[in-house]
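Lab notebook page, bench 4
Experiment: in silico fold of construct C2
Operator: M.H.
Input chain length: 97 residues
Purpose: comparison with the prior construct
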Amino acid sequence: MTMSVAPYETDSPKEPRLCEVLFFAGVSDLAKTRSLIIPVQADHTFAGLRADLVAKFPRLKNFLPLCALAGDGMIASDADKIGEIQVIAVLPPVSGG
């Protein structure tokens, strides 16, 4: 008796999953919301997310490059992939003193 097994598909794109984006301080003022649920692919980068956010919220165009992005509590670089991150925070610049 032989069993037929479906081949493992390596080239099939995974379904996008939902990720929560949190906006703080001036970013939430410009976006006019404190959070957003968006679909993302695991291989999407934080730079791509920045572009997506500017497309959705054009008022963020000049301010977003000054902001840090954190994925699940860890600061991310623009080249980092979103991967399995659940929550992304958009953090405006801060100063102390």
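Observations: The first strand starts at residue 17 and ends at 23. Residues 46-56 form the longest helix (11 residues).
Next step: discuss at group meeting.
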